[in-house]
Structure formats: structure tokens, C-alpha cells
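Data card: per-record layout.
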Amino acid sequence: MFVSVVCGILDNDHKIAAFDCLKRYGFKEIFEGTFESTSINEKTLTRLKYDIDKVIDSYDKIRFYQYPVNDTLVISYLSEKKWKKLTLQT
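The structure for this 90-residue chain is written out next.
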């Protein structure tokens, strides 16, 4: 599965912690605050989201773009410390 992550993290300590977490899970930074992986599976992605949630706060923004998930594009994002999901048919 292809996953792209876009980060808008305000606090520098949170940014460092989140970026380190993404890199530990095998993501590569392609632009500042934008990461990609082609080798992560759904179970590992769920753990990553849990770990990211622990190091950022409600003012920080992060979005995961996943494709394909049952032939759809799935956008997951953290809103007020809760994960939300938007599913788009291809």
C-alpha cells in the first residue's frame, strides 16, 4: 500500500518526535513535512497512528493518504485528538 503523510506541526519538539516516529516506521521525507512509504501494511499503520497521537497535540495537523484500500483512496486525519477518515471511490 502507498501511504503519504503531510504534517503541519507547530511545536518544534512535537515535530521532531513525530518525524522521528515516521522515520522509525520506514517513511522517507520527500519534502519538508511530507513523507512517503510503499511498504507499510494496515496493522503497522494503525500502530504508527497510535504512536503519532502520543507525541502531538490538538493544535498540530497530520494527514495520511492511503491507496489502494479496497480500490479507494482513504484520507485519515487527526482532529481534536480523534482520528477521522474520509473515503473516496476511484
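Known properties of this structure: The beta strands are 2-8, 28-31, 34-37, 61-67, 72-79, 82-89. The mean pLDDT is 94.

See the next section for split statistics.
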